[in-house]
Design goal:
Elements lengths: L10 H4 L15 E3 L12 H7 L12 H11 L6 E4 L2 H12 L5 E6 L4 H9 L2 E6 L8 H6 L5 E7 L11 H10 L5 E5 L14 H8 L3 E6 L12 E4 L2 H10 L7 H12 L1 H24 L11 E4 L5 H10 L2 E6 L3 E5 L3 H16 L12
Parallel strand pairs: 1-10, 3-4, 3-5, 5-6, 6-7
Antiparallel strand pairs: 2-8, 7-8, 9-11, 10-11
Helix pairs in contact: 2-10, 4-5, 4-9, 11-13
The protein binds 4'-deoxy-4'-aminopyridoxal-5'-phosphate.
């Protein structure tokens, strides 16, 4: 390699791809590459951030006020709620707390791009279970891949980047099939956008009935606080204690905690925005299907186009029209639901791209 690492890095870490963020958009482009919320922060949020604190002081290490608020909301104790700097931090903490070299962590693939790296950082082996052809979890295959080395399984509903949910009955059957001492991380980063009535709801089950399940939620997506980095987990107190033990202390800022509390105060506005994004998503998915795309059920704030080997070229066509999408080379494109003003261009470019895909391409609807 032309640029060797000057110190002895763990070889499996040196081999990891460095996390690459969705492309930044120019002033005249729409950034639909990171599943962000196109709305400004909810009312009261900016004020609440500014009210926060003397920045010469450390924040409250366990975000007690926010934990109290969420605990009351979900009918659990405050020890059954854990707050961290984004739900991705909690994923990392949970994995580190259960797995190390020689262990395995099972997750669906393709799914959230952070999973493979987070598993490798623990030293455990990755066990990737392919999605079904319609972008859903293959939960029987996931359950079947659990061995006595498996320390955790990740379930992502709705699945990023493909969109479908895991249903409640599928999830229940899956839990029945997995040993009850294996941690099941239910990643529900996009739960608020779900409109499917049969979708799993991790906060309905909670850690009480199934103590091995931890549900992860975030303020980044529906609440529009991605830049402040704040997410939470609900689960069994002792499981969350283990996660807390691996956490980098004091990473949740008082500004983020205040903003999250103010966002919870603005529930009606939140619901209205989430509703608008879900309606826009359904309109885009329907428009794409009409144009000839095969679109998996979209339940998050994004849609998936399985462009396969044509992904890079398709992403360029969107980019040339001022739409920045996330390309997963060889696999597909994820297009976030953004500003209303972006919708027409997304549909126009998509209609042209699908025409250039060969007959029989998996992204094309069978006529
Ligand atoms: N889980 C999934 C499935 C995601 O897509 C994301 C963000 N892209 C996260 C977790 C992490 O979100 P955050 O750290 O901002 O809470």
């Amino acid at each position: 390699m032309s640029d060797p690492i000057p110190v002895r890095v763990r070889p499996e870490i040196a081999a990891l791809p460095v996390y690459r963020q969705g492309r930044q958009a120019g002033a005249d482009a729409f950034k639909l590459s990171s599943n962000e919320n196109p709305f400004d922060p909810l009312p009261g949020v900016i004020d609440a951030m500014h009210q926060a604190v003397s920045v010469n002081r450390y924040p409250d290490a366990t975000a007690t006020r926010l934990r109290e608020r969420l605990a009351a909301r979900f009918g659990v104790t405050i020890d059954e709620v854990h707050i961290a700097a984004g739900s991705v931090s909690i994923l990392s903490q949970l994995m580190l707390s259960v797995a190390g070299p020689g262990d395995q962590i099972v997750y669906p693939w393709r799914s959230f791009e952070a999973y493979p790296n987070l598993v490798t950082v623990t030293g455990a082996d990755r066990v990737e279970v392919p999605l079904t052809s319609d972008g859903r979890h293959d939960l029987s295959a996931m359950a079947a891949s659990v061995t006595d080395r498996t320390q955790a399984v990740v379930v992502c509903s709705p699945n990023n980047p493909t969109g479908p949910v895991v249903t409640q009955s599928e999830f229940d059957a899956f839990l029945d099939a997995v040993p009850s001492d294996v941690l099941v991380i239910l990643d529900e980063a996009y739960a608020e956008f779900v409109t499917a009535p049969d979708a799993v709801d991790g906060l309905r089950e909670l850690g009480v009935v199934r103590p091995n399940v931890v549900a992860l939620r975030t303020f980044s997506k529906a609440y529009g606080l991605a830049g402040l980095r704040i997410g939470y987990a609900v689960g069994h107190r002792r499981v969350l204690d283990a996660a807390r033990a691996t956490a980098i202390p004091l990473s949740v800022t008082a500004q983020a905690e205040n903003a999250a509390l103010a966002s919870l105060d603005a529930e009606d506005e939140l619901r209205e925005r989430v509703r608008q994004i879900a309606v826009r998503r359904d309109r885009i998915a329907d428009g794409l299907r009409e144009a000839g795309w095969q679109v998996p059920d979209a339940q998050g704030n994004f849609v998936w186009l399985a462009t396969g080997v044509d992904s890079a070229e398709a992403a360029e066509a969107f980019e040339a029209a001022g739409i920045i999408v996330r390309a997963f080379p060889g696999d597909g494109l994820r297009v976030s639901i953004g500003e209303e003003e972006s919708v027409e261009t997304v549909l126009r470019i998509a209609a042209s791209v699908v025409q250039h895909l060969p007959e029989g391409h998996p992204a094309r609807r069978i006529a």
